[in-house]
Each structure stands twice: as C-alpha cells, then as structure tokens.
Amino acid sequence: MNPINSDPVVPELLKIHRVIREAEDTFTLDLLPPDKTQSEYSPGQFNMLYAFGVGDVPISISGRSSQSGGWLHTIREVGTVTRALHRLKKGQTIGVRGPFGKGWPVDLAKGKDVVILAGGIGLAPLRPVLEQIQSHRDHYGNVSLLYGARMPDGLLFSQDRETWRGRNGIQVKVTVDTGDRDWRGNVGVVTHLIDRVKFDSLQTIAMVCGPEVMMRYSVRELQRFGVPTNQIFISMERNMKCAVGFCGHCQFGPSFICKDGPVFDYPSIQPFLEVREL
Amino acid sequence: MKSLESILANHPFFEDLKKEFLELITGCASNVCFKAGEFIHRQHADADRFYVIRQGKVALELCPPGRNPITLQTVNEGEILGWAWLVPPYHWHCDAQAVELTRAIALDGKCLRKKCQEDHDFGFELLSRILPILGQRMEATQIQLLDIYGSQQKN
Ligand SMILES: Cc1cc2nc3c(=O)[nH]c(=O)nc-3n(C[C@H](O)[C@H](O)[C@H](O)COP(=O)(O)OP(=O)(O)OC[C@H]3O[C@@H](n4cnc5c(N)ncnc54)[C@H](O)[C@@H]3O)c2cc1C
Ligand code: FES
Fold first, then answer.
1. Burial class (CB in 10 A: 0-12, 13-18, 19+), B21
2. Which of A69, A129, B85, B125 holds its CA 20 to 30 A away from the CA of B15?
3. Higher pLDDT, A95 or A38
4. What are the binding positions for [2Fe-2S] cluster in this chain (chain A) (predicted)?
5. CATH homologous superfamily for the domain A12-100
6. CA of A219 to nearest chain B CA: how many angstroms apart?
7. Is pLDDT above 60 for B152?
8. What gap in Å lies between CA A111 and CA B97, rounded to an integer?
9. A209 labelled as ligand-binding?
10. Which of A78, A100, A247 to mutate to test the pocket of ligand 1 (most atoms within 8 A of CB)?
11. Are strands A171-176 and A143-149 parallel, antiparallel or unpaired?
C-alpha cells in the first residue's frame, strides 16, 4: 500500500469529518480523504497522526468510514499527543503520514479457522480484519473474537460486535477484569474464553492484539490448546519517529517495528520478547 | 429424566472418572436451581457445599465495606464453584450470585470430606481435579492484579 504522500516523511493535511466518542478515554477520528482513492490500506497498518505543535504518534487504522469514505482511527488518550488529538473538533485539520507497516495475515487465514484475541484498545487494529472476514465470510472456517477490557464501560464497538455475532456467525465472547452489579456478562481474564469457542487448533490462524502482558498470556494459552506458534500473530508497539525504517527508534531485536511489523508471527519475535531490557 | 449419576458423568469436571468414584459422589449429590439474582452463598457463611454448574452463570463478588460490590469472576456452565468446603474453617470467601437462571448439582461438603477420608484414592482423584482449577484461578487473579489493560510502563 503506498503512502498518501509521495514523500513518506511529509504529512498530508486531512480534515476531521467527525469525532466519535467510544468510551471515557477513547475516541475515533473520522478523517475526510483528499481523494477517495487515497484511503487504501491493509488491516493492521497504521498512520502517523500529527497534532500540530505537539507531536506525532502511530495509530492503527480502525476501519473505513461509511460517511466520509476515509480512514477511522480509534485512539485511547494516554499522554501528551493523544490528549492533544482528543481536544480536536470536527472541521479541524491534522497531519497524516502513512499507511505504514505489515498488517494481519488475512489471506493466509483463508480456508482456516480464525481466533482473534483482543484486549482493550487492541480491538481497534483488529476491527478491519473482522470487517474483511465479514464481507468474505465463506472464505473462512469458524471465526471467533475473544475480547477483554478492564471494565464494562471500556468495551469498544458494541454495535459492530452485535453485527459480527448476528449476521455472520462469528463467535463473539466478551469479558471484563472487574464487573459491577449492572454487568451481566463474563468476568475474568480473556484467555479463559478460549475453551468456549470452536476451532480446529492445527488449522487455526490466531491474531492477538493488546498490551504486551496480555499477548504473552494469550500466546501461552493458545499453545496449550495446540495452536502451532507459527500460526500465532501479534501486533507490537514501540515508540516511533520516522515510521519508515530510517531512524532506528522502533528497533526490536533485529527488526524495525514500523517496517517489518507491527504484525509479526510469534516465533520471529519470541526470543526478543523474553529479553528483559528490550 | 436423566439420573444424577449420568448428569455428573457427562459434566466436564468428572470426565473419565471411574464408575465406583462416580457412585460415591452421587451419594452426596442433589439437584439445585437458582433464579437470576439469587445468592448461592454469602461471604463468611458455612461452606458446606460444592457446586457443579450445569447451566447458567454465577458471579463471584466481594463487597468491600462502604463500597459497591465488585464481581471478580464469573463461573459458567461446565465449571465448578467452591473449594472452601475442603479447607478449614470451611467458610465462603466471597458471595456467589446467580447472574441468570442457574442449574447445578450440589455436593454435600461434609459427605464428600468423609468419603475422601475413608478412601484416599478417591480423595486423591478429587483433589487432582480441583487443584489445577484452583491454580488457573490463582493465575487469573494474578493477571487481573497486573492490570494488563492499564497504562503501559514501557513503550
Ligand atoms: C503500530 C502502532 C499502532 C498503534 N495503534 C494505536 C491505536 O490504534 N490506538 C491507540 O490509542 N494507540 C495506538 N498505539 C499506541 C499509541 O501510539 C500511543 O498510545 C501513543 O504513542 C502515546 O503517545 P502520547 O504522547 O499520548 O503519550 P506519552 O506522553 O508518550 O505517554 C504518556 C503515558 O502513557 C503511557 N503509554 C504510552 N503509550 C501507551 C500505550 N500504547 N498504551 C498505554 N499506555 C501508554 C506511557 O507509559 C506514559 O506513562 C499504537 C502504537 C503503535 C506502535
Ligand atoms: S520509527 Fe524510525 S525506524 Fe522505525
């Protein structure tokens, strides 16, 4: 997928068409494309979003907007730049570079069962995968989404989850770390949901996205259920600057997360995940 | 109607259990049903039962003084509820409330303890099934304590 700008280090100015509130600390920016043909991307790719005068951060593309035809980015406010992005309003402009990186193995998963494990904001980079599966449902076997968040009010995309579950026969299981009396769903760790869905472990592609600790536990559980490690894919996060493999900022072992990832098959990064200092 | 023994034999917790052990367990078993919202047990009360969940969902809750109750975990169909009947002083550590209509087999804790004492092979078999579940739940609690969805320290 080619970046929108021929020079990948120069941001393109895009107007905000809508700001969608997803949860207390999470929002989606719907960006108006300068030209509809320029909003191509692969599920799992990311853009660098630049809040003027503050800085830029890597944010995954969380889908295509049915309203603007442009990219959606779902962002959790955690620090300086994401807070500045949260202050932006409809009609304002941001700088965008991308799309960058290698995404999820949606083609490799054709003809196989798919298990998607998402934690918190980790559902955002996986939403395009579920949308792709949804529009080519007969290309895939059993598909399940196992989604965990800290609290019920932090769960994202409830309408989408209903659509995936309803029309497309995707097994959707949700859990939270801590519930309250109003919550009628599951409480417990996301890995606990694995044995509640149907999949043929040897014929499964697993895609995992969430905080690193969650991904480690998820990979271990998937292995326990017999999914071969080379069929498990995870999306890594590291600080980025150039996003095109020049600056070395995102180096992780021998790989650059921006260029060789952010999605990796587990065996290729496992040795480095176990190094404490990385 | 299915007999208690055949219900127990088909529950994942008792998968492949020897028939003689199944008979011992059936001797301590009774069918129970809880409506949504009904408490199955309360914290600190006598833990005299062990439940094998057949259908429904149960929330394990803690009620810190002066604060709203929080659900720490849910237990679903195919799982078991309660281990406090095994460990003195046999008191429940939390509340258990049915989130939806829940059907279960209740096993009398005293009756089971007596049979475990009389037949150590039976006791060992039962413990070998309960301990991995306790281990998994302990690990789940550890993961919850890590607050894995909170802010990352390193990026
Ligand atoms: C390839 C890639 C894709 C990403 N996709 C998304 C996405 O779709 N949506 C999204 O919200 N974020 C996403 N992120 C993470 C996002 O880039 C960071 O949250 C952002 O860079 C934080 O910048 P900041 O200036 O707001 O926070 P900073 O000021 O840099 O950090 C403030 C505090 O937040 C903590 N923090 C930093 N990053 C994270 C994080 N990722 N999660 C939790 N706490 C963090 C820091 O430890 C620090 O305590 C992605 C990251 C990568 C590498
Ligand atoms: S961010 Fe510069 S090399 Fe990856």
1. middle
2. B85
3. A95
4. 242, 247, 250, 258
5. Translation factors (2.40.30.10)
6. 14
7. no
8. 42
9. no
10. A78
11. parallel
